[in-house]
Design goal:
Low-confidence stretches: none
GO molecular function, one term: acyltransferase activity, transferring groups other than amino-acyl groups
InterPro entries: Acyl_CoA_acyltransferase, GNAT_dom, YpeA/RimI_acetyltransf
Distance between the termini: 19 Å
CATH superfamily of the largest domain: Gcn5-related N-acetyltransferase (GNAT)
Order of helices and strands: EHHHEEEHEHEEHHEEEHEHE
Shape: elongated
Structural class: alpha+beta
Keywords: Acyltransferase, Transferase
Largest sheet: 12 strands, mixed
Protein name: GNAT family N-acetyltransferase
CATH topology of the largest domain: Aminopeptidase
Oligomer: single chain
CATH architecture of the largest domain: 3-Layer(aba) Sandwich
């Protein structure tokens, strides 16, 4: 027999155990207690109301923790069912316990079983990011033409230039243009590298930008792109290779980059210099309750 419970003193230890195993299903499942212990008393009360524990007979087998965004969007922060039970039925019961919403979203990192299960439960994948990695075992071959120069962005001098170039490269209807203040804010973050922001120049025209950041002691290339009129001409590979060689000279062993799974041209470019796909993180939507 299945039954739902709210979080209380008598079952908190059982929930702690379930919470500890949350990443078995999805590494992006959020840690309830990290949020709970950093919230005030009123916020803690609201958090407990958004948590549902599922028991089979007298044993707790799973939970669902949600968050409401606006009037019609529900975000699943974390959900988990123990492996030694009917997993599909358990997740179905959790989802059926929810009130109807226009959109239910869930962020998930792919493993050997969760994508297939989400599809069976009625979820649809709406977008995904691939995380790719390349090992820096040696210098990459690079031939720089006379008309090409690389320019390191200097703090306190080049913020406006960087802002203009980034807005030109990444211009789209879905993107809010950067302001110079956004560049200053970026420079204040712990991940920012002083010599990691790089502009590419052809003759007297800036055509490309790429940036190296450090996240969890791992270097990443972010905000990488070439102006539309200069794409598919080899400039992207040249800028990418130049940045990889900078990292190799600094003694870095590898670097990662994230890319939209639908951006086939970018994925092809990254693979051409040795990047391989490591993980996929995606957003899923459930438009109906099973």
């Amino acid at each position: 027999m299945y039954k739902f419970y709210t979080l209380n003193k008598s079952n908190i230890n059982e929930f702690k155990s379930l919470n500890d195993f949350r990443t078995e299903f999805n590494k992006l499942n959020k840690d309830f207690f990290h949020v709970y212990h950093n919230s005030n008393q009123f916020q803690q009360l609201l958090l407990k109301k958004r948590l549902r524990l599922l028991a089979e007979d007298s044993r707790y087998i799973g939970y669902l923790w949600t968050e409401i965004k606006g009037n019609s969007i529900c975000l699943i922060n974390s959900m988990y069912i123990t492996k030694d039970t009917d997993v599909f039925k358990g997740y179905g019961l959790l989802l059926n316990s929810m009130k109807p919403y226009s959109i239910i979203t869930y962020n998930c990192e792919k493993n050997e079983m969760n994508y297939d299960l989400l599809i069976r439960l009625g979820f649809n994948k709406v977008k995904a990011l691939l995380e790719m990695k390349v090992n820096l075992d040696s210098m990459f071959q690079l031939q720089i033409l006379d008309r090409i120069n690389f320019h390191k962005v200097v703090r306190g001098k080049d913020e406006k230039l960087r802002c203009i170039i980034q807005n030109s490269i990444f211009c789209s209807e879905d993107r809010i243009p950067l302001k110079v203040e956004d560049i200053y804010y970026d420079e204040m973050q712990d991940y920012y590298c002083e010599d990691g922001a790089m502009l590419m120049k052809v003759n007297n025209t800036y055509i490309g930008y790429g940036q190296i950041i450090i996240k969890d002691n791992t270097p990443y290339i972010v905000n990488f792109g070439i102006l539309k009129d200069y794409r598919s001409k080899g400039y992207g590979k040249m800028l990418l290779t130049y940045m990889l060689n900078i990292l190799y000279k600094k003694g870095k062993k590898s670097i990662k980059i994230k890319v939209d799974s639908k951006n086939e041209s970018a994925i092809k470019l990254y693979k051409s210099v040795g990047f391989i796909e490591e993980t996929e993180q995606s957003q899923w939507q459930l438009n109906k309750i099973i």
